[in-house]
């Protein structure tokens, strides 16, 4: 069993563990260095909210979602679930937790083509053009903006 908690600003150790998880799930498989990803993660850090899915016995972070809120807008910046825990509903729980905490916000995510079925199943729809990023194109990954439709 796991619970989802929001990390507060002082929980630096748990935040570092969550960042390690994101590095191993999101960027290391595509050959990105920790230096590059540190820049991504530390940019405007103060405005980012971290939520983690955490088990009790043993204590372990098995999933993480990072969001940024500005007024009525909410962006899902990163979402990652540990490989051995994927396809067990943890990603869905993390997203639903965030949606429930911020009802009626304008929610968007820049989704990878490899995860669009996941986003569509959760009620997100494409709301932008396909975007290429040089570091990811060579791995067959392109991005598209998806917006949440609260009416679904
Ligand atoms: C994408 C990711 C966050 C999904 O989390 P998860 O815990 O594995 O997904 P869930 O088990 O909550 O899946 C919810 C639904 O989406 C489906 N789904 C999840 N990932 C999918 C994928 N890559 N392709 C197709 N369907 C997928 C599940 O089968 C499930 O469907 P169901 O409700 O009909 O059973 C996770 O697999 C992951 O970390 N992937 C690598 C990193 C990544 O792509 N992050 C997203 C960047 S935009």
What would you say this structure looks like, in words?
With 152 residues, this protein is of the alpha+beta class. The chain has one domain (2-148): Gcn5-related N-acetyltransferase (GNAT) (Aminopeptidase), CATH 3.40.630. The chain contains five helices and seven strands. The chain has helices at 12-27, 34-42, 90-101, 116-121, 134-137, and strands at residues 2-6, 48-56, 59-70, 73-81, 106-112, 124-131, 143-148. A seven-stranded mixed sheet has the order 1-2-3-4-5-7-6, with helices on both faces. The protein is globular, with a radius of gyration of 15 Å. The two termini are 28 Å apart. The site of coenzyme A has 19 residues, from α1, β4, α3, β5 and α4. Coenzyme A binds at residues 25-26, 79-81, 86-92, 111-112, 114-115, 117-118, 121.
Give a short account of the largest sheet.
7 strands, mixed
Percent helix: 25-40%
CATH homologous superfamily, by name?
A: Gcn5-related N-acetyltransferase (GNAT)
What count of helical segments does DSSP give? 5
The quaternary structure here is: single chain
Cα radius of gyration in angstroms: 15 Å
Distance between the termini: 28 Å
Bound molecules: coenzyme A
Q: In CATH, what is the class?
A: Alpha Beta
